[in-house]
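Study both lines:
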Amino acid sequence: MTPTDRPGTTSPGTDLRVLAPGDPGWNEARATFNLLDDQRPDLVALPENRDDVAAAIALARRAGLRVAAQGTGHGASARGPLDGTMLLNTSRMTEVAIDAERRRVRVGAAAKWEHVAPRLSELGLAGLHGSSLDVGLAGYSMGGGIGWLTRKHGLQTNAVRAIELVTAAGEHLRVDADHHADLFWALRGGGGNFGVVTAIEFDVVPVPELTSGSYFFPVERAREVLHTWTALLPTLPEELTTWVTVLHFPPADEVPAEVRAQSFVILMAAHLGPEREARRLLKPLEELGPIMDTLGAQSPIALGTLAMDPEDPLPYRSTTALVDELPGDAIDAIAPLTAPGSPLVLIQFRHTGAGFSRRPDGAGARATLPGEILVFGLAVPDGPDADVTGPLGALDAVLAPLKVGEYPNFVERPVDAGRFFDDATWARLRAIKDAYDPGDLIRGNHHVPAGGTSLAA
């Protein structure tokens, strides 16, 4: 049986590797960062370049399959089942080119921030990455992209200057403000719904001075720390970003001994300025008497590990909300959810505002986010029968009356993607989908459907 009849090894006329269930490497190729996901596509293609991507799309068309691209496996939970779908695992496409003089970077479809951030840091530069360097640049950027520098410099998607992709028709395009401007607009916020991205080009920023670090407090002081922090927020400049994270560290050997198997409420800070200024701004929190204080001058690469995100895949479920405020009664209701032993191993509160709400000229479909605080809760089951929906639901119930929006990259379940946009933006996204993928061949993590689909939604 040939690969055209049943793809198994390579596609005719190309070196593209294609796997079917049961082939060697199948489980690794379909895996995601969330171990609770069990993706079961019909086929997995492993392209190494844009020609391989075009070949994979053509093969999917012949087989009557849809196409979903995946570089790193983060965020895949939002996509739902992959029945009738070919998964394009682009993890081999990790090339990186840095133009330090122009402060511009071009990366392949599956390049992670860890491939870029250390090199930028040596140059005194930084990209607008999030809390983990393990995250892939393409999906992060097309969904918005928020992190330690967003309050000052805006969303990562606004820093994108060009995107290269293969369309559903198999055409190679490089889109920017002057070429296929409608598609360029849609990709910056509408995600990977309009073609399979093969490369992305974006601007980075100089970081001449950085102070970062954390204040650790016993988890029992979560209520006190959150009350103090929220009262402080209106006084903080956009050069200072602070997060409060309630974190229950696992009893794992790779966790540093001083925090292993312990629980803390942690004030995390990144300040584009000197340490003395950061400490002055954070004085009310410092006066609470942290039991550990790591604040100090750092190089930009320190932002990649400041949040202490897990580096290895794990099983989890999550919830999130953007809110304008976190009033005292909400803090008091959340505090009991932070107790050690809860499946809610992390509840994080990020100060947003400032650059989160600024729309630059020429912005794409997702240029801003509402609210002043982003809340993210993550639950890890300690066994097959563990209840994670209850604790997550309790957090949702507190946040529901305060909620003003969501950050799509943090919504890790299948939902109607129209909820992330106003009516005019959603209508324009769907019109562009119709123009470039009328058959609805391409599936993004949060799907933008074509107006008249010829394949199952």
